Amino acid sequence: MHSSPFISDVPVAEALQAWYDACTAAGCPDRVAADLVPLEDAAGRVTAEPVWATRSSPVSDVAAMDGIAVLARETHGATPTTPLHLGPESYVVVDTGDPMPDGFDAVVMREQVHYVGDDAEIRSAVPPYQHVRSIGEDISAGELLLPEGHRLRPVDLAAAAAAGATRVLVRRRPRVAVIPTGDEIVPIGSPVRRGEILDTNSLMLVAQAREVGCEAWATEIQPDDVERLSTAVREAAGSADLVIVIAGSSAGRDDYTARIVSELGVLAVHGVAVRPGHPVVLGAVDATPVVGVPGYPVSAALTFEIFVAPLLAALEGAAASQRPEVTARLARKLPSVVGMDDWVRVRLGSVGGQVVASPLPRGAGVLTSLVRADGLLLVPAGVEGHHAGEQVSVRLLRRLPEIERTIVAIGSHDLVIDVAATMLRGADPTLTLASSNVGSLGGLVALRDGLCHLAGSHLLHPATGEYTVPYLDEMMPERDLAVIRLVHRDQGLLVPPGNPLGITGLADLGERDLSYVNRQRGAGTRMLLDQELRRLEIDPATVSGYAREEPTHLAVAAAIAAGRADCGLGILAAARAFGLDFVPVAEEPYDLVVEASSLEDPLLAPLWELLKSADFHAEIAKLGGYNTTETGKRLR
Amino acid sequence: MHSSPFISDVPVAEALQAWYDACTAAGCPDRVAADLVPLEDAAGRVTAEPVWATRSSPVSDVAAMDGIAVLARETHGATPTTPLHLGPESYVVVDTGDPMPDGFDAVVMREQVHYVGDDAEIRSAVPPYQHVRSIGEDISAGELLLPEGHRLRPVDLAAAAAAGATRVLVRRRPRVAVIPTGDEIVPIGSPVRRGEILDTNSLMLVAQAREVGCEAWATEIQPDDVERLSTAVREAAGSADLVIVIAGSSAGRDDYTARIVSELGVLAVHGVAVRPGHPVVLGAVDATPVVGVPGYPVSAALTFEIFVAPLLAALEGAAASQRPEVTARLARKLPSVVGMDDWVRVRLGSVGGQVVASPLPRGAGVLTSLVRADGLLLVPAGVEGHHAGEQVSVRLLRRLPEIERTIVAIGSHDLVIDVAATMLRGADPTLTLASSNVGSLGGLVALRDGLCHLAGSHLLHPATGEYTVPYLDEMMPERDLAVIRLVHRDQGLLVPPGNPLGITGLADLGERDLSYVNRQRGAGTRMLLDQELRRLEIDPATVSGYAREEPTHLAVAAAIAAGRADCGLGILAAARAFGLDFVPVAEEPYDLVVEASSLEDPLLAPLWELLKSADFHAEIAKLGGYNTTETGKRLR
């Protein structure tokens, strides 16, 4: 069989079915073998046969209370006014759990017995079987205790033991071999030279396989050499129940995997109508399923979730763990390509009693989109996308109670927000402050639309020279909003280390041929630049690079560090992060805008406390470029 | 300090706070120590400090596609009709992920390049930075990647590696020592003599502790000896971060733990207003938290969930994992004691698009109530209970998608239902058939009220001599119901092994002084008995034991096996489970009643298939006492 040179667009369900069929045809086992293991080692394993009780629990009638065992009919006539004395032959002292002595059928609680000499005095008659646990009350011998294909939990182990088991037949953990490939890939911990890429994917895939209960390991990194890679795949197929080959992300590199799989065994699918994850390779070699995952990290992670995890669950004979779903309101418009299942990472927050989903960056290379994601939104192949405000169903990556303990901040980015997030979490691990960086104006729009708890803003109002507050009157005159000062901070020009061009300020943009890197429209920093250019009477059209927009301070710093621009406006902390020099231009306030009611919201209370704390001010001071004189002050 | 001889009723939140305060006062550390561990060993561990990026990803601008790197401004003018030739000095071939060569700022995809000799021909102009991933697109050096107190997932490890980390500072796994106590407790696997109890609790508690990420072990079983137990607690406190003492379930036994804790350290709480779990002991010894859990298995499991798990999470500096909740309709009335938090185990099913919760047996000794539970319903101390049909909030023990793949059967119990459940699950691990045994009439009522998918019934209609169908016309005349025959089965008298009293049939109940064990009203077997007694002209009032009701065939068998009765009506399989003899009395049909629409419901389709399969008939034949001639036949 020959590999096709083209990547096809097989729908996901079809691709999975074709893979399963190919595996069956290639002689791959349906299930991994089963082992009889002691109960204490069986937690998390999957039963390979039903567990039937061989023993009842309790094994006999037992006392359910501390007290005395009596014969119920001998207690007739006892009342508070006519107490009854039972002689020593008519009762037996019992503790909870003791077998009922022969000839007795009820228990009188210790607290209701008074001893008069050797006699027990009782003050009420009792019915038969009072405070007696019947044989088999919990488990009857012969009953079905646990089904086949059940992942064993702690209570299951205890019940199985009570039902007479000491060992259970469970599936062996599936073994997963991960083969990283590529001449440019180097192990984590080695020095990375230009053009080399760290092997973060095998670290992740091995951990993903272990998380779903497998034994997993990564082989050595294989160079782009068909022969060596073929040998590695064969070896792995001989020792594992499933082989993952991490291809480079290029089509050419994937073809290696597809070609090797088709030469050594059966290639079922090359290319699925899903993104990220499109160039996935599915097949079988030597009666072992093989999957080629794309090299982009988000693609690799999602390929595991969509294709590998279900097959591993099937090998264990268990249901694949499905993520719970939640209905959320989409924070903004989400276009999607028709013909492809589109897996969009989203942040979730509970604002005003409703769950809100904000899409994260969609690039397959942006692993942090998955780190920051609270959920996955699948836009199916047949859907063109969603409108802002639409109700969508999101698969949860975090649990809802955690999401409900998340303060959602949308707006301008500032490292002080990160510091606050860190300190809040350090004091209370249940509290998360999650920030999305869309610029000051974007944050105010999100607040207006009920998509966040707070908006970080440093938006200069040119007509008044004031910051932020005038915009609130324009955008949301009817809303009762509060504005809390976070900090004053220095804005300045970020320039390469040592400031080789000797840049002294924004006036240089009008006088010299400097290339500039800009922030997006709606960003406070962009407003500041435009205001300053007007003041300096510089025409933006004459500024080289004015049209190139970056979404954050750090992205501006990165562009300058990469040599793509000579300067850009930003904050000192961003310059420090990339080892750049900083030419101060202005001091500006950075404020938090919230609904006035949020000042009383228990979720946000720790934040308001934090703003007043000396520890917080000290941490900000360490960053440099900030002034905390007015931190925590309510401006409106 | 002396222990109080009384068990108090401290509300849960107060008890937890008192325990935390006592631990702090006793010098217990707030957090376990932190270790720097390699990323590959860090999955599931909790960060002890935030992870800040020390490296950007990508580390430089890189090609995002396979193709050629070009200088965008040199491509101006290229169109499909006026292709442009770039000489070898004007382009560089790049693969995805390659660093952008100096002096080039855009990539043209491989598919859009034609080579003419050494020249590259392109047919459209490209903007700067097309198909270029910017330095820091994923991660910018200096940004906050992961907060403190974050449990590391596979993607986090990969992102941390990409951000320059090779090791992370994480909390050590908390160490938990479990001390089983009691003269009557014997290890799992040992022969159990009369009055002895298997140590299933330490197996469960150790597994629970491991499930939440701890290192855990059980010590030897300690006898009821204050001195030896004191030594064991001290030793455990010296090597563990938390000590669990499993008390016997009696008040007297608990006092041992409370007394020891107060003598060796600080006793904070003895007795909490929660059930199951009331007599819990909370304190600290030698700067180590100690908890005494009650011996009843459900109490032990819930005490772990309510008290131990949150403290262990706090020691790791993480948020305790909170169970997701779902709103469900309560299947029947649920009374509850005021003044106690009441944790009720419930089965869940999705019937007619609504989640329905059926309370399970509430005894603290019924561990299978927890095994079978899909959720926990907390009835708070201030609430008297709930009405049938009320909407309640349930904490999920299974995921909702699994619950939605559950066929809910309520009605009469028959082992053939268990066999069907086993075979359905064996063929499809995602499919569960969950049955609750409430008798035939109870099942029909549940079906009427929309609480189940199917009702198992063998309800004799005395006036017509027919089974089940006449009741449907009486109870639900307006409903479109289908009746499917499951089996015919033998009913008979269960009698002790060897039938020592020589019982020959129900007529003996009228002629001899036999003690009988009955089924509850509404059970088909009870209807059969009453019908037969009428036919034989036996007055029920003369039958000894007629008033004692058991809920299942197996419970009847258990009562006879325990010597509490001479005989009872039931099925052969129940006799076999308890090694009893069986005196046949009648053959009766056992049918499944469903909404007619259920015959087309994809969820139930595998069941209808199964009823027709020869394998299923063969399995039933193995049970004995069944006839499958009409199995699967639709009667109505």
UniProtKB/TrEMBL annotation, chains A, B:
NCBIfam families: molyb_syn, PRK14498.1. Residues 177-314 form the MoaB/Mog domain. SUPFAM superfamilies: MoeA C-terminal domain-like (SSF63867), MoeA N-terminal region -like (SSF63882), Molybdenum cofactor biosynthesis proteins (SSF53218), Periplasmic binding protein-like II (SSF53850). PANTHER family: MOLYBDOPTERIN BIOSYNTHESIS PROTEIN, MOLYBDOPTERIN MOLYBDENUMTRANSFERASE. CDD domains: MoeA (cd00887). Transmembrane segments: none annotated. Its cofactor is Mg(2+). Pathway: Cofactor biosynthesis; molybdopterin biosynthesis. Keywords: Magnesium, Metal-binding, Molybdenum, Molybdenum cofactor biosynthesis, Transferase. Catalyzes the insertion of molybdate into adenylated molybdopterin with the concomitant release of AMP. Its EC number is 2.10.1.1. Belongs to the MoeA family. This is Molybdopterin molybdenumtransferase. Pfam families: MoCF_biosynth, MoeA_C, MoeA_N, PBP_like.
